[in-house]
Amino acid sequence: MILKIVAGIVAAALLMVFMAPVVIKLKDVAFTVVVLIGLAMMFVDIWQSLQSKDD
Description:
The chain is an all-alpha fold and about 55 residues long. It has one domain (about 1-50). About 85% of the residues lie in helices and about 0% in strands. The chain is built from two helices and no strands. The longest helix has 25 residues, at about 1-25.
């Protein structure tokens, strides 16, 4: 369980660090919205995987 939490946090942080310079440099609202939707979907997936009883 703790491994899932750590892996989810690391994955989310890496995605944000990877996408932040592009979003900041381009300053395109549509691209920013797409990135935020992708992050939201990632967090929902992490939440659902933590709620499952697979382990």
